[in-house]
Amino acid sequence: MIRWKKLATLQRIFPPKLGIKIVLWKHLDPDQSQALKDALTLQNVKVILAEIFNLTNVEDLREAILLNLYTYTLQYARDEDFTIEKLSAYFSIVKDSHEYCTETSFMNLDETFAFFKDLLLCHSVYCPPHSAELFTLNEVRKMSFHMINTYFRHFKLYKYAFTPHVQLDLVLDYIGEPESMTDLVDPRISETKGSQVTDECIDKENELVKITEKGLLATS
């Protein structure tokens, strides 16, 4: 009875969110996880990951970036001496967080970090069938710092490399506005201005003629 009360309390405190599921063995099965854990060198880890996820095109920059991300995620898990269960779960948490990041071309840093935290929580609290107590609190803290200092520190670079670039072509149509500035001028005003300009030109020409005649008379 006490056990069920505890579970009900945890479910109220940590309600399952849409899309947040246990990812143990999602991308790495037990045999693959064991092979990666037992690999002698980091280069061997990279070779195994390249075979599992078919990341063999060395000229493809996206594949190269993904392979590095996966490799150094496994390096962290190996350095922390994770069990194969923890290794598989942490790898899938990082992979799913990256895929969540690259679902859209628009900035979603806060949403991706919240998604990552929810995945960690889903694997650190005993609340079946929604979550499992796989990681300790200290491990969760260390994994969070690791992701902040690696993946999220270069978040914009991952966005730039893995999402389509958005270009906005903006065209404005003004409803009810004249098509050109000449339509704004009243024809009567333009005619008046035109006649004024003509009169001014005639007056200036007459003045020039008078000045010229005076000059000629003076010289004669």
UniProtKB/TrEMBL annotation:
<dbReference type="InterPro" id="IPR032727">
    <property type="entry name" value="CLAMP"/>
</dbReference>
<dbReference type="Pfam" id="PF14769">
    <property type="entry name" value="CLAMP"/>
</dbReference>
<protein>
    <recommendedName>
        <fullName>Coiled-coil domain-containing protein 189-like</fullName>
    </recommendedName>
</protein>
